[in-house]
Amino acid sequence: MASAHLSQDEFFDKLGHLFNHRKGSDHGAIYLTQKRLTYDPSEKSTMAKLFPDLLPNKPLPIIVRATNGKSKRDRSDKDKLSTVVEPHELEAFYVRYADVCKAGMGALKPRDKKKSKAKAKKKKATA
Amino acid sequence: MPYFKTSQEWLDLSVALLEARPSQTRVTAKYSIKPVKPRKADPSSTSADESSSPSDPKPPRGSLVLKTYDPVSGVALKYRTTKAAEVTRLMYAAMGRLGRAQAGVQDVPEETMQDADAVETPQGEQTPTQQTQQQGAAGGGGGGKKKKKGKK
Description:
heterodimer, A: alpha+beta, Signal recognition particle alu RNA binding heterodimer, srp9/1, three-stranded antiparallel sheet, B: Signal recognition particle alu RNA binding heterodimer, srp9/1, 2 domains, 3 strands, cytoplasm (chain A), Signal_recog_particle_SRP9/14 (chain A), Signal_recog_particle_SRP14 (chain A)
C-alpha cells in the first residue's frame, strides 16, 4: 500500500507496462493523477497547514500517480505507481510523459485520413 | 457534470481553478477501453456519424477523459476525446501547463517578455508596436499552450 515513490525512469517503465497490460484486453481503464505535493512531515507551521494555498512563495514539487483502477474485490490486482516531480524537472518529465501516453493509448481513433479515404472508396463503390 | 466542447476552454478554466485553489485541486486523466456493443443493422440509426457496418466486429473503443477536480468546492471540469491525434497536445502542453501551475512555477509571462522587448527597442526607431507584440507573444508561448487547433 504505502509504496515509496518511484524514480522517474522507473515510473515511466512501469507506466509503459501498465499500458501494455491494457492493450490485450477489451475493457478497463488507467487513471493518471497529478497534484501539488504539500505533504511535508517536517512542516511545523500550522499556518502552512491551515492555509496551504497561501504558502507558495517557492515552487513546490508535484506528485504524479498512476493506477489501473482496480479496487474493491479486485484489490489484489491493483497497480499503483507514483513519482515526485521537482519544479525544475517538469519540462523533461512532460515530454516523456506524453510519449509514454501516446504509445500506450492505442485504442483511440487514429487520424481521420484513413477513415475519410475508406469512406470515399465506399462512396465510389456504391455509386 | 457537463463536458467542455473544446480542450482550450477546459484548459483555461482549469488554470483558473488551479490559481484559486492550487493545493487541493487535482488533475486526472482517465484512459479507458470499452468493448463496442454490436449494433443492429438500422439504416435510420441516429448516430450515423460513425461509419458502422455491423457485420465486422469492431476493435474496442478507447477514450481519454481529463478532469480537474477541487474536492473542497466540488468543482469538476471535464473534457473528453477519442482522438489519438490529441493525446500529445493534451498530455504534454495542457497537463504540463497545469503541472507548472500546481508546482507554483511562474509560466513564462508574456508581459515581461514584452517589457524586455520594449526596453531593447529604442523609442525613436520605426518599429510598429504590433510587431513587438507579436514577438513577445511568440517568445512567451513556451510549452506550446498557445497552439490552437480547429477541431470538432
